[in-house]
Amino acid sequence: MTDSPNYQIKLRRTGGMGANANWHWEIHDADGKVIKTGSAVGPEHKAFATARIAKEKLEQSGR
Predict the structure, then answer these.
(1) What is the pTM of this model?
(2) In a domain, 1, yes or no
(3) CB–CB of 8/31 below 8 Å?
(4) Which domain of life is it from (predicted)?
(5) Number of domains the chain is built from
(6) Which among 2, 6, 27, 63 would be 20 to 30 A from 33, CA to CA?
(7) Is residue 23 domain-resident?
(8) What is the pLDDT of residues 1-59, one digit of tens each?
């Protein structure tokens, strides 16, 4: 059994509303260090899905 790192997604709205909302997301490791950042436009659930995909890719690569 491998020990996979624990990552946490933090999402915040930086402007706009509804379908035009701008979101900034960060993926943090267990120590709170920012591993990856990005942005997305649209509803919150779509921005979170974008960050989740990036998180899953990090977990697969074993970063």
Answers:
(1) 0.83
(2) no
(3) no
(4) Bacteria
(5) 1
(6) 2
(7) yes
(8) 455 578 999 999 999 998 899 999 999 999 999 999 999 999 999 999 999 999 999 99
